[in-house]
Amino acid sequence: MSALGWVCGGPVAVVQALRDVLTPSGTLVMPAHSSGLSDPAGWQNPPIPRAWWQTVRDEMPPFDPRTTPSRGMGRIAELFRTWPGSLRSAHPIVSFAACGPNAEIVTAGHTLEYGLGEGSPLARVYDLDGFVLLLGVGHANNTSLHLAEVRAGGAKQVIQSAPVVEGGVRLWKRYQDVDWNDEAFPEIGAAFDETEHTKIGKAGSAEARYFPQRGAVDFATRWLRDHGTAPQP
């Protein structure tokens, strides 16, 4: 919202505008990430004392797609998470919300392991040949490029953990994932923009980029392999 400038109607008007452009036949997808449910041992903004870590793991409410708020996604994405008809995927940290005819396809079956990989909504958007709109942010915030990290291979593997509910029981769950690294994304994005697949314009005061997600992921996968900059174990 800050990049767009003043909008009559605020985030409600933005979501309504996006839905109007898509029409009832289109499906809108936004990140609904909730990084606050991660292992406190890795918290940096701010860090907490080591003596508190286990208490946090024992007491933190588990992820609930209906009530867990997003964190750091902005007012538009947080509003969309609660939009009538929106569905949310089940990952406790990198969930996505979707509304429209393909919302269930996009959000269903989100795997705990490799949350931005082949079992994620990002891969379902790829399968559906969807498009990405970067509204007021650049490719450094292009979450779809994390799917390319997985497909490029060689990414550093880590163990993550989060509070979830399984079989009606709250537990602190450990799982395998990638140590996500977005440092090369601006360079990859700039190179991709030069392929003429990206439409760049203004939305209010913000710069907006619109491009096919499949093309961007395929381009980034090749770039990471060719440049040898995929994160190494």
Account of the 3D structure:
With 233 residues, this protein is of the alpha+beta class. It has a domain of 155 residues. Helices cover 30% and strands 20% of the residues. The strands form 3 sheets. The chain has a 3-stranded antiparallel beta sheet. The mean pLDDT is 94.
Relevant terms:
single chain, 233 residues, alpha+beta, three-stranded antiparallel β-sheet, 20% strand
Provide a compact summary of the structure.
By secondary structure, this protein is α+β, with helices and mostly antiparallel strands. Helix content is 30%, strand content 20%.
Q: Separation of termini?
A: 38 Å
Number of helical regions: 8
Say how many strands there are.
8
Percent in strands: 15-25%
Show unreliable segments: none
Topology of this structure?
Blueprint: H1 10-22, E1 28-31, H2 53-59, H3 75-81, E2 87-88, E3 96-99, H4 103-107, H5 121-127, E4 131-135, H6 145-152, E5 157-166, E6 169-178, H7 185-193, E7 199-203, E8 206-212, H8 213-227
Antiparallel strand pairs: 1-3, 2-3, 4-8, 5-6, 7-8
